[in-house]
Design goal:
Oligomer: single chain
Strand order of the largest sheet: 2-1-5-3-4
Strand content: 15-25%
Bound molecules: iron/sulfur cluster, FE2/S2 (inorganic) cluster
Helix content: 25-40%
Radius of gyration: 27 Å
Length: 752
């Protein structure tokens, strides 16, 4: 940005478009301002969420005093500009552009998937083109099947939207333009990876050139009922729309101009608990089990309303309420808030994408939270952000955006957080007690224990000089760490004193909502009832428990997202069985529908007393998010005391790290027929040498009381002695695996 531009950015300006006086701010394009004022300018290549592509010329306008036609999608408006968007000359030019687009784009819309929602089809009609004016010799360009998506070069209008999404948003960087004049085409340079993130690239294709392979030829767009909702698979809670016909989900779409979906959100939709009817006998047993329960254990695949029902039942029945991941997160955030004085972290995804420097600590973020990775990628692509990735394991999928990898020893997260706080708060004024805590840190010892070199920290600190807009992303490795509460305080120092935009990525599903709504306990007592968790009596949406429950796409309710927003989730598929609310009513609560609890969510935690049906669920024409509401930040009591960093007990030898592959999160994503992943223990050659394991060998080990029978596989691209242990295939037991993610591998060989 030039000095002139940065000085003026945000300054109020007045622009007249088609006679309408529009107030706006400097830095916005003519197209942006027109859209803010509901003035229509046609576009073909414009995609709001990426930088202007400026390849189609449809958005041309005239600006008084400026010769020729101006591309409104990339031209910033100046104060006092008078713009015309409609006149014969402009329309003729647009018509000519459409004629060229239609050269050999077969207008055989009847067989095309995109028919009914195709930009080319719509604009061909809008500009009154009744026939194909020009033709060119047909070239033989067969359809390419790239796995999740298929590409038909004959339909491609080379708008480049898909390439920009792959580069600027998802960062898989698989799609490229292959220039060749009339024979130009899009190529997938990483076909072997079959990235599910390419679903997002297909979503933005304005024509039927890039489509979901599975959806192809299955339905006309206009036959599908669109049900807006939120993705329940991880804590991000992304906007999504179920597209349904005859009680079947055909595909998932999204408001792709402004939001994104990862592969799980897009393709893991077929996990409903189907063909369930009311089983009265099992229902009575469930009620009895609740009456006699010493503890109710539940997974994070639980809506805010269900969490509130469980909390109310706890108050009535006095059982212990257990949700391991949410409890770890709750403790972490409670400790965090003693430094900041607020119950929520300050960070947002939008600010993350606008950062000039990002630090990631304690998360394999590409797998843990794909949209967080997307926003880090945006910061990297748009602002050339420095990205420091601090983790015991390098991640190849992050290579193109990470500018500094800082490896630390598994287990030394507290030391790593202390070193980070010390480095980043060096020249910043902090209260005396905090300064003396930092001054007293034994840097040499912390550095030796964590294996983070002082020169690495100096390099990190140097890279931040002259930058502004810092973000820190922390994740699940920290929440269940034995020293989690102190780590939380160290991280919070950076929000409080160094002005970082901090995001504490929720560890799973609706863990953030649950952690705010429920008074959770630590220890299980007596007989247990499990909700999507195995127990003495199990309620299960997977259909393998003692009483069936609806899956997340079979129920209404709200989720709390990573952006601290309470968003609605709607019913995509019918469900014929009992729900938690039925049990609660029998036990003495009183609500006809689960969503009656939406307005009763705790206001003292930041929720609002709003009826479910009154929750909005859309982005406006310029991308303002009107989904549900934002939690109100609540005051928390301050207690800015820090402790000595504990000595760590290092891990010698072979270590395993609980981590699911990208797009897999739980038994529910595992049900998806489109996302097939093999659950194997994946380690390096070095890991194989240390453990004396052979590629393909069967082993057994136990974590958190859950027994794993796994095949060990060598991944030659991995290094070090930490192997990846997926948990998504462990059915309901997955919810029990919530202790510290690294552990020593203690195994038996099969047959012993
Ligand atoms: S595949 Fe679709 S999005 Fe990509 S360049 Fe072609 S028309 Fe545009
Ligand atoms: S990032 Fe999480 S919430 Fe968003 S689409 Fe993916 S799984 Fe769903
Ligand atoms: S929308 Fe401006 S050039 Fe395509």
């Amino acid at each position: 940005m030039s000095i002139h531009n940065s000085i003026n950015k945000g300054k109020e300006i007045t622009v007249t478009i088609d006679g309408k006086v529009c107030q706006s701010t400097f830095g916005k394009t003519i197209l942006n301002i027109a859209r803010e004022n509901d003035i229509y300018i046609p576009t073909m290549c414009y995609l709001t969420k990426v930088q202007p592509i400026a390849s189609c010329r449809m958005c041309i306008v005239n600006v008084e005093g400026v010769d020729g036609m101006i591309l409104s999608c990339q031209e910033k408006a100046t104060d006092g500009a008078v713009v015309n968007t409609q006149n014969d000359e402009l329309n003729k030019e647009r018509q000519n552009i459409m004629k060229l687009y239609n050269v050999n784009h077969p207008l055989e819309c009847g067989v095309c998937d995109k028919s009914g929602e195709c930009d080319l089809q719509n604009k061909t009609m809008e500009f009154g083109l009744e026939e194909q004016a020009f033709t060119a010799r047909d070239q033989h360009r067969p359809v390419e099947n790239w796995g999740h998506v298929s590409y038909d070069p004959a339909l491609c209008i080379m708008c480049e939207k898909c390439v920009r999404v792959s580069t600027e948003i998802t960062g898989d960087e698989a799609l490229k333009v292959k220039f060749g004049g009339y024979g130009s085409t899009i190529v997938n340079t990483k076909q072997d990876k079959n990235y599910a993130s390419l679903g997002e690239a297909a979503a933005v294709c304005p024509v039927g050139a890039l489509v979901n392979t599975d959806f192809k030829y299955t339905s006309n767009a206009w036959e599908l009922t669109k049900i807006p909702s939120a993705c329940p698979h991880c804590g991000a809670g992304c906007q999504m729309t179920y597209e349904v016909k005859n009680e079947k989900i055909y595909r998932i779409s999204n408001d792709f101009e402004f939001s994104n979906l990862c592969g799980a959100g897009r393709y893991a939709f077929d996990y409903a608990n189907e063909n369930v009817s009311k089983d009265k006998e099992s229902f009575s047993k469930a009620v009895k089990a609740f009456e006699n329960a010493g503890s109710v254990i539940f997974s994070s695949q639980t809506s805010n309303e269900e969490a509130l029902i469980l909390q109310k039942l706890k108050e009535e029945k006095r059982f212990k309420l257990i949700s391991h991941e949410a409890r770890a997160y709750q403790r972490f955030m409670q400790s965090y808030s003693t430094i900041t004085g607020k119950n929520l972290y300050n960070g947002t995804l939008k600010e993350l994408s606008e950062s000039r420097a990002v630090i990631i600590l304690g998360s394999k973020v590409n797998d843990d939270s794909p949209v967080v990775k997307y926003h880090i990628n945006m910061a990297s692509k748009w602002h050339r952000a420095r990205v420091a990735y601090m983790h015991p394991l390098e991640d190849r999928e992050m290579q193109s955006i990470v500018t500094q990898f800082i490896k630390y020893e598994a287990g030394s997260e507290e030391g790593a957080a202390a070193l980070l706080a010390d480095t980043l708060l060096k020249d910043i004024e902090v209260p005396k007690a905090i300064r003396s805590f930092l001054d007293d840190l034994d840097i040499g010892n912390l550095s030796a224990e964590s294996n983070i070199g002082e020169e690495e920290l100096e390099a990190l600190s140097r890279s931040l000089i002259k930058k502004s807009g810092f973000s820190l992303v922390v994740g699940s490795d920290l929440y269940a760490h034995p020293r989690a509460e102190h780590i939380a305080k160290l991280v919070a120092l950076l929000e409080e004193y160094a002005g970082f935009n901090v995001i504490c990525v929720p560890p799973a599903g609706n863990a953030m909502g649950i952690s705010l709504i429920c008074d959770l306990d630590d220890e299980v007592e007596g007989k247990t009832v499990g909700y999507n968790t195995p127990a003495d009596f199990t309620l299960s949406a997977l259909g393998d428990g003692d009483l069936d429950m609806p899956s997340m796409n079979q129920q209404e309710g709200t989720l709390t997202t990573i952006d601290k927003r309470v968003v609605p989730m709607n019913v995509a598929l019918p469900y014929g069985g009992y729900v938690l609310n039925d049990i609660a009513n029998t036990l003495g609560l009183d609500a006809e529908y689960t969503i009656e609890y939406t307005k009763a969510l705790p206001v003292e935690k930041g929720f609002e007393a709003i009826e479910f049906d009154a929750l909005p669920d859309y982005f406006d024409s310029v991308g303002n998010e009107n989904r549900g509401y934002l939690l109100k930040v609540q005051k928390a009591s301050l207690k800015r005391t820090l402790e000595d960093v504990a000595e760590i007990e290092g891990f010698d030898g072979a270590v395993i790290y609980n981590c699911d592959p990208t797009d897999q999160f739980s038994a529910f994503t595992d049900k998806s027929k489109l996302l097939k992943d093999e659950a194997v223990l994946l380690g390096s050659q070095q890991f194989a040498t240390v453990t004396k394991l052979k590629d393909g060998e069967n082993i057994r080990y136990t974590l958190d009381g859950v027994v794993f029978d796994r095949v060990f596989k060598i991944d030659t691209s991995m290094k070090g002695t930490i192997a990846l242990n997926p948990t998504f295939d462990m059915g309901l037991s997955g919810a029990l695996l919530s202790s510290y993610r690294f552990s020593r591998l203690d195994f038996e060989r099969a047959g012993k």
